[in-house]
Amino acid sequence: MKNKIIWPTLTAIWILVIAVAAEATLMGSRLMNEAGISLAAGEVNRMIYHIFVIAGIISFVLYVVLKGAIKKITDPIEALTEDAKKFKEDQYTHQLRDYDIEELQNLAHAFDYMGDELSGTIRKLRHQKAKLESMFSSLEEGIIVIDKKGYIDETNELARKLLGLKGNIPNNCHITHLLREEQFVKLVTEGLKTNKMQVIELKIGEYIVYITMVAVGRSGKVYEYLLLIKDVTQLRGLEEMKYQFVSNVSHELKTPLTSIQGFVETLQAGAIENKEVAYRFLNIIDIETKRLYRLIQDILLLSEIENMDKQEYGDVKVASVIENCMSLLQEQADKKSVKIVFNEEQSLVIKNMSEDHLTQMMMNLLGNAVRYTDNGAIIITTQENSKQQIITIRDSGIGIPEESIPHIFERFYRVDKGRSRQSGGTGLGLSIVKHIAKLYEIKIEVSSELGEGTCFRLILNKENE
C-alpha cells in the first residue's frame, strides 16, 4: 500500500520538475535573446543540473516524510486487517494497541468492541444451535425441512429411520429423489404448488407413518416447508388388535347365547312337557351359562391385569398354591385317568407377588395340561439356584405344532378349536398367564412335540423380586 502511494507521488514530482526545468530553460533563452545576451552551452547544462539536484534532494526528503506519514496509517490498518483474518479461526479478540492518529485509535476501539460483540453473538448462536439440534433429535416425530423448491435443508435421525434413508443425505438433494412413493411425490408436489397443509399415511418398510407437510412463513410469504413424520405403526397395530378382540369377543359371546336361546325356544315350544328332554336341555343351558360366565370373568380379569401396575405384596409359598390348584383339578384329572405329580426339588418362596395372580397362572397352565392330556401324567417341578426360581409344568398330552407356539399367548387363539370349546375353554387362559408374567417380569419358555406333550417353564430372576 505504501509503494502505491509514494512512487506515484514521486513520479508526479519528477515529471513536474522536468516540465518546470524545460519551461524555465526555454523562457530564459527567449529573454536573453531579446536582451542580446548569450549563454554558453555549459552554463545552461549546469543550470539544468542544479535544478535536477535540487529536485532530487526535495524528492528524497519528500519520500522520507511521506513514508513515515503513510507508515503511521498503513501499519495500524495492516494490523487490524490481520486481526480481521483471525475471525475465521474463531479468534475475536486482539492485542490492544495505542496509535498516534486519533481516528485510527477510534477505529481500533470500534474494532475491539465489534470483536467482543461478535464473539458473544457467535457463542449465543452456537448455544442456540446446540439446543435446537438436541431438541430436533429428541423429538418423537421425524422432521424434514425443505426449501421453496423442495431441496432438503435439515433432517433428524428419526425421519431418516422412518423413511428408510441410510447414510448422510447429499447436499442439494430433492426430497422426491429420496422417496419415490407415488403418494409421497404427490404430497410434496401439491404442497409446493398450493402452500396448503397436506397429509398422507404410508407404509414404508416395517413402519406405518403419518406425514404432514406445512408451509412456514409470514404475511403470505413462504420461507420453507416442514414435513412432520409420525410413527403410527403401534397405534395401527393396537387398533387392529382392538378390532380383532371385539370381533372375537362378539363371536365367543354369540355362540353360547345362540345355544341358550335355541334351547329356551324349544322348551317354550312344548319340550318342557317332556321331563327327560327338558332336563337335558336345562343341563346344556346350565353348561353354556357357566361357560359364558367364565368368559366374562376372564375378559374382566385380563383387562384388570393389563391396566395394573406392580404393587407391594407379601411372600407367596409356591408349594401351597400348587397343592391347592391340584386339589381343584384332581376330579377332572381322575375322570381321564391322568396323574398329577408334584416334584418339589426346592421349596420356593416368591417375594412381592400376589397369591391370587400366581394361582391364576397355575390354574390356567395346569387346567390346559389336564384338558389336552388323555392319558399319562402331569409333572410339576420347582427348582432354585443362586439367580433364578423355576417352575416347570410338563404333560404327556397331544402337544402343540411348532408353527402354533408363537401364537398360543394371543387372545382367543386355539390350537384345537373344537376340543377347547368342548372342554369349556375360553381361549383367554394363556393370554392371562402372559400378562401376569409380564407384570412380574417372569420369563416363559415353551417346548412341545406333537404326540409327546408340552413343557412350560416359568423363570423368575431373583434380582427382579
Automatic annotation (TrEMBL):
- Listed name of the protein: histidine kinase
- The PAS domain covers 128-165
Q: Which residues form the HAMP domain?
A: 71-123
| UniProt key word Transcription regulation | no
What terms describe the molecular function in GO for this protein? ATP binding; phosphoprotein phosphatase activity; phosphorelay sensor kinase activity
Q: Which residues cross the membrane?
A: 48-66
State the GO CC annotations.
membrane raft; plasma membrane
Query: Which InterPro entries does the entry link to?
Result: BphY/WalK/GraS-like, HAMP_dom, HATPase_C_sf, HATPase_dom, His_kinase_dom, HisK_dim/P_dom, HisK_dim/P_sf, PAS
Question: Where found in the cell?
Answer: Cell membrane; Membrane raft
Question: How is it placed in the membrane, per its record?
Answer: Multi-pass membrane protein
Which EC class does it fall in?
Answer: transferase
Q: Where is the Histidine kinase domain?
A: 248-464
The organism named in the record is: Cellulosilyticum lentocellum (strain ATCC 49066 / DSM 5427 / NCIMB 11756 / RHM5) (Clostridium lentocellum)
Record-level GO BP terms: cellular response to phosphate starvation
Quote the EC number. Answer: 2.7.13.3
